[in-house]
Amino acid sequence: MPSDLGHIRDKVRGYILQNLLFTDDASQLPDDVSLLERGIIDSTGVLEIVMYLEETFGIKVKDSDMLPENFDRVDSIARFVARTVDAK
Amino acid sequence: MRELRLLHDSLLAATDDPARLAKTAVIVEGRPYTYAELVDHALRLAAALRARGLGRGDRVAIYMDNTWPCVVSIFATLIAGGVFLIVNPQTKADKLAFILDDSGAKFLLSDAHLAKEYGAALAQAQQRPATIVSGDAADGAESFDAVVAAAAPLAGRAATIPLDLAALIYTSGSTGNPKGVMQTHQSMTFAAGSLVEYIRLGASDRILCALPLAFDYGLYQLLMSVRLGATLVLERSFTFPAQVFARMRETRVTVFPGVPTVFAMLLAAHGREPLLFPDVTRVTNTAAALPDDFAVRLREVFPNALIYKMYGLTECKRVSYLEPELVDAKPGSVGKAIPGTEVYLLSAEGHDVPPGETGILHVRGPHVMLGYWNRPDLTALMLKPGRLPGERVLCTQDHFRMDAEGFLYFVGRTDDIIKTRGEKVSPVEVENMLHAIDGVREAAVVGVPDELLGQAIRAFVVLKPGATLTDRQIRAYCASHLENFMVPRDIVLCADLPRTTTGKVSKKLLLEQPPA
User: Fold this and answer.
1) Mean pLDDT, residues B475-496
2) Of B111, B240, B476, Cβ closest to residue A66
3) Cβ separation of A66 and B237 shorter than 8 Å?
């Protein structure tokens, strides 16, 4: 069964809000905003997100997957996780 | 060939050289731009700035990511006779407003995606610079692309001479507010030439720059590259290392400048999936000491590279470098003065210091700053009378040791500036931000050792009676008011801060406290 994209997206957004923006206000983080351009992530932020994804979804993120197309938006992170989980 | 007197002379010299014009000057996130495009766009923007009132010596604030418009803006400002200052795009509104007011910038050049911060900064700044932004311009700002396209290339040259200012380079200071280091065309042209010489760079080099152009280490990659007619491979940041590595392979980068945090990330990645860059022939490190074992492991990743350990401060760009052939023979050393300059150690009383003993590092050379913009008081602390009449030398306030052969060893700083991820952070600046939070009675900030970051920022916070702030709320406030690298990694809530006998908060005792 394919992964529930909506569920993954909510968890990812929740994590970023709590741990990188330190807020519960979901309006601070639209799904399609560039995390890099908004200054929300930097190199350590990406590593924190990767560690969270590996723990929460039981996936392994390769260094070569850590690219803006996979990690620059909540939406793209959720799609990346869903793809990786489904490929397991 | 004409003399290179001004910082942009080497770029304008390309106009007489068809081969140079056709060559790739910059590859920005994979997209190449030729020297012809750089000259053309810079001359057009220069004309547009002049037409909008930019006069000789006027400041232009460039608050942009590492982008093509940023590169164009730097050279356009110089060509137009102005003084550029680059503000890190991570900077938040309050600090940007301070810098705009302090510099008296007449123009603000920015990116549309930074509108939230620059909009708030302009609303609180005392003066309103004219604003030009790349991307979708709004709120009275002009569009960068439209401005460049509409202007004809500037004809004629500005009246600039080598003693005029080229840039203000803002750097953190122990007093809390950043200060603008004044650098002239002469000093920057000299420094770029000295660096090019000892790093042994040439026109065929392809130099990576994933460091912010707002950081002088990043900026000089561009200046050196254009000086030589080489190619700069410009990346926005090291946030996505795999992307940077892919680009390095694709463009066959030959020069890799980094700071210890970047090398730590690179070596960690190498540990997971082996990395190999045989095209890289020079690797440079500055901003913080490169651990000795890094140099050994970096040779696995860069088997054909010379590895340079260097030391510097914005006030003179660079102080010293260790000849790469001596990396193993002189562990822990940052070498000798860069070509054309000299260094010496003096005691606190101003006497010569014998070999092996600790003294305060003094730097003499054409690369030394003119002073801090608007801050003669702080300038007087750093620039001291030299041995020749009227001469001023840079007193770095850093403690060093020199061996009998003249090699330098860093001992320590005399201020409490924190170095994290290669960035200088003023504890006072972070403390001021913490004090501004409603509910905070007192705060003290220290740097603690960290393998990846060099130092991590730890804040001890005392709340007012009845306040219910959590560490998360405090970090949230910091994250919205400070650059990412300045946000404390640890917040320790405590009942009181330890003090010295004179009642001052004791940072020494704080450093001895457990993290939580």
Assistant:
1) 89
2) B240
3) no
